[in-house]
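Two proteins were folded this term; both appear here.
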Amino acid sequence: MLPVAVIDADSKSYINLNLLLSAAGVAAHPFVNPVDYFESPLFQEAHVVVVNLALPDFDGLDVLKYAIEKSKAVSVFASINAPDTQKTVAAMRCGAQSVFEKPIRAEAIISAASGNATASGLEKRNKTILVSQQLTGREQQVLQGLLANETNKEIAEKLGVSARTVETHRAKLYAKLHVNSATELIQKWKA
């Protein structure tokens, strides 16, 4: 099992996540200050990291970018305190595998820590960064909806646009990713 670094100034949130991770046999390491994480031995070892984007005295996105670029993390997740589309899109563009709204459900983190990440996690992280550089923010939001098996109508309602607009973004997304269907997109993404 890979250890999990949790960078979050909210001790209550960390305690809840630690309980979930511990129950699954995953060692969690709290860091209130991101500098402590950057200077820790864990930073240079294979691990999973969860960065809260609402850190006091630090820009959470900058911390996330630094963790992605410099650490040995095989999976990088972001957490937010409340729904925030702009932060979610920005975190995904930086290379976060997922953005969780608190309270965090730990299944994806446990899966990554269980070894389902290792080299494939690095490849997926690199694929996520590459795709995020190719896609507009709205196309990334549509991609997230498609990967969550949402219909055009559900995605449109969530984004506050028409289903036709989602179809247009979806067509552009397919062209950029060289796929012809949602099934092919999901298979390619999960490969």
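Next, the second protein.
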Amino acid sequence: MSVKVEVKLDVESMADFMIYHIYTSGAGMTALILGMLNVGLTIAFVMRRQFLLAAVFLLFVCLVFIVFPVFIRKKVVRQMQNSRRLEETVTYEFMEDGILTTTSEDSGKASWSKFKRAISRKQIIFLYDAQKRAIILPVSQLGDKYTEIVDMIFAHMPAPAVRIRRLDGKKGKVAGPRKEEDRKESDRKADVDEKATREPEEEKGPAE
């Protein structure tokens, strides 16, 4: 079984990816922690009616959670507007033994073991390898193949490495194995019921 999809990277998808990539790096996580601390300090100073200090810390909160993301997005948009990557169509084929990537100039295949994380955002799915290189899939371009691609990812990557929300809102492995377990459980119960119905008949003696 294989799933093939053609995508063309757009500015919004690249901007979403870069914001996530930056804010999950060491420096980005530090900034987020400091931002949360400043939210707490802002609330604390407001409760003490020290509004000037509260305004100072609120300004830092705005920088971390509003100004920086907007600045990053605008910078990515400017960089990507003249990029050849926006004009190039890339074909990804998800197979049992890996992912085949094909462009107009080159092609290559990576086994599933090369990918360390799979993550979904509102507009994109991306898969990281060990070198932090990523396959970026705009969700709007996947169409009805979204579920098939997600199922392939869940089936071939370790569950802790996959953070993708399904269309049904659930997280976890493919439904197939669960159905198999349910079938085995129902068969076991059927065997128990059959033995229970036979035991009273065996206990009866010969008719006089």
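The radius of gyration is 27 Å. The first helix runs from residue 11 to 23. These notes refer to the second protein only.
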